[in-house]
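User: I want to check something. If I give you two sequences, will you return the structure for each one separately, not as a complex?

Assistant: Yes, each is folded on its own. Here is the first sequence with its structure:
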Amino acid sequence: MSNHNLSRDEAATRSALITTHSYDVILDVRDAADPAVAGYPSTSTITFSAEPGSATFLDFISGSVKSVVLNGQALDVDAVVDRDRVILENLAADNQVTVAGTALYSRSGEGMHRFVDPADGQCYLYTQYEPADSRRVFANFEQPDLKAEFTFHVIAPAGWEVASNGVEAARTPLVDDPKAAQWDFETTKRMSTYITTVLAGPYFKATDHWGATLDGDTRLEVPLALYCRASLADAFDADELFRLTKNGLEFFNALFDYPYPWGKYDQAFVPEYNLGAMENPGLVTFTEKYVYASRATDAQYQGRANTLMHEMAHMWFGDLVTMNWWDDLWLKESFADYMGTLGVDRATDWESAWVNFASKRKAWAYLQDQLPTTHPIVADIPDLEAAKQNFDGITYAKGASVLKQLVAYVGFDAFIAGSRQYFRDHAYGNTSLKDLLEALSASSGRDLSGWTRQWLQTSGISTISAGIVEDDGTLGAVTLQQDAIDPITGHQELRPHRMRLGLYDPNADGALVRTESIEIDVDGPSTLVAELNGKPRPALLLVNDDDLSYAKIRLDPGSELTVRSSLDKIQDPMARALCWTALWDSARDGVTPAARYVAAVEQFAPAETGIGVLLNVLGNASTAIERFVPAKTRDGVRKDFLAVAAAQLKAAPAGSDQQLAWARTLADVSRQGETELSLLRSILDGSVVIDGLAVDAELRWSLWQALAAHGQASQAELDRELEADKTASGREGHALASAARPDPSVKAAAWDSAVLGTGLSNEILSATIAGFATAPAAMLEPYVEPYFDSLEKVWAERSIEIAGRIVRGLFPAAQDLGDGMEPARHPVVLRTDEWLAEHGYAPRALRRIIIEQRSHLLRALTAQAAKG
């Protein structure tokens, strides 16, 4: 068995034996541009204390280990290297170990990722470690509670930009190699291994500065830098990014009352990134998809700002104070998710941050919380594979939603006061749930033990609906009914909710406006709302108005009738977003037919002014058509929807975000529908010009992908398009379009390159898988058995990032419910059940992905069976 998967028990044993002090790391990447060079010299010198006479191990996933020197004594490499571990025995009270070896460049986005820009042939490097991939770059004790100071030295081509967590201290040309230089960086403050980082390559760099005067006239000076690939420099809006960065630093320094602790603040936008961003202190890394070379909507810019604020909040939550182990991952991610939205709301010009949070982030949490693999916010993480899987909608969005409710419960001022004390008490250290609760309980004067058990230590989601008794237009008894089952324990888990009820009626202009708001505590299965007795029946009674609590809502029949006839007349953007969500949840849950949701989108989406909400509902409509609408009616529903999308593309204001949203939707849905392909071809060749529509690279590839999926784009045409767009995104677009062509030989080649080959980088792999999956279920039927047969081999032989993309992306999800068939008796559901029954020994992380994919399929089949 591989040693990649460090267990929690092993980590606890190691941290009980040793205390780490410092690392001195030398990385020599001067030959990175040579594709024949697979790795680079890596030397790591570590000082640490230990229980005398004890033994422990270092982590190092490498190409080879050249030498190990412990306390001045060279050890026998063959004797002490056990696969990905270096065994250290007979330790002294104070120790120094130096491990030299060859680390390997990555194409998976894990460790030291190497990317060659197709636009100009330039080589770029960056590192990404979370949760445990710094051991792919240098030998270390890879767990979050063994913090240390780090000093990095990087040897690279002399003309490159090189950066790390610390400020550059020196740059020295090499005497024996005039084409190379050594960068030495200042020693960091204590931090965890997974947030160390190195960046190297011919990056474009922009610089700026931010400063603030603290209490006592102390001046805080923070140098700023931004990086992106040279070929993206013309699209890099550095001035706007610096503006947001300064706003964020101003806001969080004042909010947390703890000066930014990491010296400089660099932000790098890097290619083929597996995440949205990563909070490395002093050098935050982002996906370069946030560098908009093609037209982007305001919602995309706001999403980027949210990510920027999220990562900045991590400088305190996660970096300054770090969880002991991944069980408490929420201590950083839930807080950063909440603070990211708060930062956009209070430190930028956007006014829709919490509306987009309700519409998008919470929808992610609701989806995740209904899976059989859901978990409490405070999770049980027995090993690193489980940690990798728990960067999910529960840890991020549900945690942030619950924190939003906690703020309402204890008060914002008390919440911030407790956070400030938490930073002061635990700076540069590690914590658990208990430490945070002590700080918040002290600041608020509230006992949070009950709240913790009900919200942080249970799983599942409540569904709340209003039961209404009325008499001739007057409300009688109104009760809020709560239904909640913990999917893990099977127990009823009725949580307390502080929420508002909004009463909406038409005004003189016919708009639906809030006429009254009632705040109420919901507790138990049924809560009487006495304040409503005797009031006129409103046109819309909106449960959880203003989105204070975390719960699904069901509209009562009268309110649902109002929403389905007049959703576009609801003036308040948050109320409108909540009604959209209620309609979507009803379709996802099979309560109402999915075609009714699509019809609502056709009727009301053209009037939706919130671009973030519009993008969400159009994406939901696409999912509903292809997954939730029964096969026998799907073509008709899709045809009608495509006609609306084409009409709205032409009717939307020229150059507007709404126009772009409809264009993208038209291309996306046309991958499966043929009725508007002639329009797509005409837009591509310029014979049809839509006033204001920028037919740029991103949109062009979407249009080509739709044509390719129906055999209306030849490989030669796709290759010519790639020749005109020699960019990383162009290469991904080409890979998807090429694999989407409905030819059995094309699908076989895509399958082989994704599953059997190892030559695809992470992003090209995902594009190839997406293209392969763009096909009718009948064309993919021959791959059902090979999929299940390949699972163990893929998981054993590929990195967890790459294996996860393959296992998740190639699951045979495009299935339909036959006449008279029970969803649970569908052949693919049964085959999945068979595999799970026969592979109880399979790694938990692999089983979790399969279980989740089965759940998604079963939900789709159940929705297809919905009546009404």
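And separately, the second sequence with its own structure:
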Amino acid sequence: MNSATISTTCAYCGVGCGVKIQPQQEGCTVSGDASHPANFGRLCVKGSALGETLDLDGRLLHPEIDRQPVSWSQALDTVAQRLQAIIRVHGPQAVAFYGSGQLLTEDYYVANKLMKGFIGAGNMDTNSRLCMASAVVGYKRAFGADVVPCSYRDLELADCVILTGSNTAWAHPVAYQRLVQAKKARPEMRIIVIDPRQTATCDIADLHLSLRPGSDAALFCGALNAMAERGRLDSGFLSHHTEGSDETLAAARDWPEEKTAAFCGLPLPQLRTFYQMIADSDRLITLYSMGINQSSSGVDKCNAIINLHLATGKIGREGCGPFSITGQPNAMGGREVGGLANQLAAHMGFNADDIERVGRFWNSDNVTKSAGLNAVELFHAIENGEIKAVWIMGTNPLVSLPDADRVRAGLARCPLVIVSDVMRDTDTTRAAHIRLPAQAWGEKNGTVTNSERCISRQRAFLPAPGEAKPDWWIVSQVAQRLGYDEAFTYQHPAEIFREHAALSGFENNGSRAFDISGLAQLSDREWDELRPVQWPVNAATPQGRERLFTDGRFFHPDSKARLIAITPRLPVNQATVTYPLIMNTGRIRDQWHTMTRTGKAARLMQHISEPFCQFHPEDAPHIHAGDLVRVSSSHGWLLLRAQPDLLQPRGRVFVPMHWNSQFSQQARVDALVEAHTDPLSGQPESKHMPVNLRRWHTAWQGELFIRGSHLTPPVTAYWSRIAQPGVTHYVLADASTPAEWLAWLNEYIPTEQWTCQSATLGDTGFNLLAWSDGKLQLAFYVHRDRPELERPAIVAAFSQPPQTAQQRLALLAGRAEHGNASAGATICSCFGVGEITIADAARQGCSSVQQLGAKLKCGTNCGSCIPELKKILAEQITLNSGMS
């Protein structure tokens, strides 16, 4: 290995893939780490494109107060002085921190220590509340500890894998590809997908249950009852290792097959097939994610799943267990250090013993005595004026929180909003009084923990730009200015990690699941060289432990697990005459969270370029593909590109979660979502909001390409920005037509300074190219309906101007030169392979995904495009058979 090669961990989902970085003179090359146990060298397209997100465009590089650059000392002094003033007048409960699964464990630890240990309030919560808080409570109720008992290897060893509430193929592609390979090696393995939608994950499913949204708990209660009726319970395990089985089984008897099928909206034969697959499997894994957790009854859904595993003894063995897979790279690390408002550090809680223990360890007599406000409560308290100061770190709640416009209005009234971030302009930084420049992935140094409890190093390979600093340093400096010098003297993140590890083992003696005390004596060099390891790591398990509960002992005081009697219930909000459709939200393949990182990578914008609304054609027959659609709820409205799809269930629509105000005019989906939360976890219901659809009538639609970056969009009712190399690209639409297009453009950008070439096409068609010094400066295309353009050819013209009159005429028409065929819409983002290219290869004889991969490379990296490749092949076979 080249000595300059650096091993680090991907910055995206909870799979926690290992990454190899080879710095170059310009940029770096990114590849998978073949030695990392999470991915063994495989990366998804987002991970492969990490090197394309490292530029400094849009970065926050200097501290700012009221948008004016200041020195670090002035910024830190001001933060401390204003916090002290608020605490002096209103008390510590008037202050809150809001963190992120994007923080490293060391950052998280210092922030939590300052808030809960020294300021003395519990108001430290995290955006992980929005993705896995229900899983945490479910595990704690069942096991006595927040602990994932499984490993990724168990996915490959199972006889049956249930994927529920997760489009794993798109949200966790590398974990999904491990499952794909296991299925190929063992075709007898059964894979069941439970999802109202038919997603890419269904590609390898033996059974897809398109259940009624929100009915998951009833499905698993019915499964428990069915296992009891079939004699598939593990009575020995139940009697020796659990409590609560009698009450839980009695509650499950309320869910016989017929009632369950009706409640879940499933055909009875399909339900029976599901139950038989479970009954026939000795080794069962249930992989669950946001479709389970993001619910007003998410905890009960989690416990219904766990009940099934406990009652059948399918836990603590190879290929067995209830496996919650997290959405962020360090959601698990945040749980370890107490990043959630209902936790203290090291998985300790707010009982008297834990409070006293943490106080002694931190040498503080001001440890908070009670849990703080969770995310939704916290921002309501800001709105109500109860919280006067909030410090937001590495997250974008004005896009990701439910009822997001209400959150925005609340922050606007907050006396002190501090934001530590990488990017200068986000929906949330716009609300900040003080902006603090944090280091980004590639510059930060610390650890993260993935979904299988594996701690990995995230290593710096780039110098910190401008005045960007580590989050732990920023918080420590403020803590010192608040008077807590001795407790926050850290000079290196390894010091923080050692303290965190020592606290995990402090007076533990096996009573707490989280224990990495075996790492508490690492030297700086040993910490820097730390290899991935699954906790616990202590004297009993110095090499870590892949699988927990192998001895049937849990973390309740009597060492027994708890089955929890569940009463299933549907979501609070149901369809009405005014809002007859149910909106589900989620991820798409190539984007991440609120797009502040992935939105910078041009190739990640090519597969799906605009925010969209997917619906069944019969639910809105007047709305056609490519139309713009207004999606409304009782809380707001969006403008999105219509995407009718026969695979979308009737009565339900899907809208992606990613678009923010920097990338689209009106597409922040969480502005539509009501803030209903689970009463036990505080996690909001993000998958079930009643909406209606209306076609939005446009007078014109167009696309604008301009040399340069970060130009403000024209004033139009609809716009979306698409990342392109060296070019600002907007998709535009409006309900009224400007009187004269050139005058309209000149108001936005002075085209009269350039040489222009234009063409008028009928009443509403107008195309224009603007040149300066032989270089293309602007290309503009407007039609009555959405113009059909060959975007790659247009973008390429900005770097390679057309040389002939014929080439310029083709460009003016929005086309590639005759003979240079378009590749079509991007299907494989890893290698930039388009739909037309793939269809052509199929016509020329490629009849399998493998043959397409050999010819075009599509589908040979992350595999996320394989379901779409199969669809194109099937369509081509149908066309060929029709022609014959």
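Because they were folded independently, the notes below concern the second chain alone. The chain has a mean pLDDT of 94. Residues 125 and 375 are 6 Å apart (CA to CA).
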